[in-house]
Q: What sequence folds into this?
């Protein structure tokens, strides 16, 4: 699937004091693993593509299993590579998706503001995330498709109230216009970074050894090294080689 700056094939990035981002040759100090979750057709793939490539597609193929994209950003003076796993929303892929919660530092929980049903399922996704991920997982709640305000079924205030009750950061985005998309990823990264500093994760992190392909370290943070685990991707970056169908879920 074209458009993402870099894809994983199960191997590790260079394990040194700094890693090398294969997408743009940019060095990074730490790697944060993010997972994007939510119902089918809420625009998860389009959000990731807008973040990594500043591009929007009116149609795309339904995510089968898990897909991957990455981007290096600056957070509090540190270069952080965000390794983002875009998950399928269909129930038949839940067992695959659960394996990707392990070691995640942050999660973007997405619903569609024009589909109340997708918002009503947010509680289920939140419970699943907290049951399967590390206890320090940072979760940002995202109401997507805010460009379709005339079709809105979930008021901003309702999403904000839910986030407050459950201790989540909240914002609304549009994968079409790019509104608040970068902020969604950057804010989540800043919250992870702050939690890591408070918990002395960076100080206690073992140094990456040259030539190593380490698994995810504490709190989904890796010291400039790649990671393994979970479902390996096909050469095109798709988590399964099953047939895919077109869908205009992002529009």
A:
């Amino acid at each position: 699937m074209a458009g993402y700056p870099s894809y994983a094939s199960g191997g590790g990035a260079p394990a040194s004091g700094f890693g090398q981002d294969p997408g743009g040759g940019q060095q990074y100090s730490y790697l944060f693993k993010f997972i994007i979750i939510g119902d089918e057709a809420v625009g998860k793939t389009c959000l990731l593509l807008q973040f990594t490539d500043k591009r929007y597609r009116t149609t795309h193929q339904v995510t089968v299993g898990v897909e991957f994209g990455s981007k290096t950003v600056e957070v509090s003076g540190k270069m952080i590579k965000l390794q983002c796993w875009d998950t399928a929303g269909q129930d038949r892929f839940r067992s695959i998706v659960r394996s990707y919660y392990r070691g995640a530092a942050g999660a973007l929980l997405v619903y569609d503001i024009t589909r109340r049903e997708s918002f009503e399922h947010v509680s289920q996704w939140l419970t699943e995330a907290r049951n399967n991920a590390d206890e320090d997982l940072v979760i940002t709640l995202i109401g997507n498709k805010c460009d379709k305000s005339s079709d809105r079924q979930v008021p901003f205030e309702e999403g904000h109230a839910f986030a407050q009750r459950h201790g989540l950061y909240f914002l609304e985005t549009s994968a079409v216009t790019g509104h608040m998309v970068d902020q969604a990823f950057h804010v989540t990264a800043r919250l992870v970074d702050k939690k890591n500093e408070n918990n002395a994760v960076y100080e206690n992190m073992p140094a990456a050894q040259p030539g190593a392909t380490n698994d995810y370290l504490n709190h989904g943070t890796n010291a400039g090294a790649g990671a393994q685990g979970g479902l390996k991707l096909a050469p095109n970056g798709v988590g399964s080689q099953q047939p895919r169908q077109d869908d205009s879920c992002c529009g």
Remarks:
- Residues 60 and 246 are 5 Å apart (CA to CA).
- Residues 1-20, 208-219, 225-249 have pLDDT under 50 and may be disordered.
